[in-house]
Design goal:
Elements lengths: L4 E2 L15 E4 H9 L1 H9 L10 H21 L6 H15 L13 H19 L6 E12 L5 E13 L4 E8 L7 H5 L3 H12 L5 E8 L4 E5 L3 H20 L2 E2 L17 H4 L8
Parallel strand pairs: 2-4, 5-6
Antiparallel strand pairs: 1-8, 3-4, 4-5, 6-7
Amino acid sequence: MHGNYHRKPFNPLASKNIIKMVCYSHSRLSTFEQCALKFKFKYIDELIPDIEQTIEGFLGNKVHDTLEWIYNQVANNNLPQLDNAIYHFVFNWKNDFNQDIKIVKQEFDAEYYFNLGTKFIIDYFTTNYPFKDNTIATEKKVIVNLGSDETYELQGYIDRLVHNKNTNIFEIHDYKTSGFLKSQKELDNDRQLALYSLAIKNDFPEAKEIHLVWHFLAFNKKMISKRTEEQLENLKQEIIQLIQKIESTTEFKPNPSRLCKWCEFKTNCPLFKNGYVDLTK
């Protein structure tokens, strides 16, 4: 078969009993672009994954949780010290870690990732202490309405939202725990935070500007980007076209790449079942 999966066009609103509009996410859209068959397994068939969680995902969760805890403490007028932040990270790591967490890169073990996370917390804490920017929300849920008739919704979570009162500039902050540092050009074309800025513009129409801020924790580096109104409008149209492509798709083909190493649906993929997959792309 080699992945020639046929089905009726994907239409979440097909049931006459469903009147709710479709709600997408950046990760859902990215999954389709990465591999249409993985999208089908995950979001249409809702298969049970082979891998519940990878060590990279676990590391990201624990680091995000600790940084959220820091800013929530500050919001409650309780400025934490570095030892407090490290303790929070260590306690939650040890409390939640289990042997089912998948380590794909066999040259590393769990202790390596634990030490990596500890370093992320130390570097971020010492760089940003005493956290005086005006953080107004952490893990803020946002809804972006797409299309003139608001046909589609996109949902996401902002790691941290800052409002600089003196300049009336809002900042959307995002923490990255991967070992890959994006270029400025890549960030200027990144769509996730740009989409979230549409929701912030709607919630705070008085905002003078919205800055998109990434913290690449492995490099202890902060990078910033902005979008024009024209760029945001073009982005909305691109996302609408992508959603329409998803909903009109009838054949979900696998797309082999290096990312297959981390795929949680290998046992269902025809390429792996046939003992072949090209990971060199």
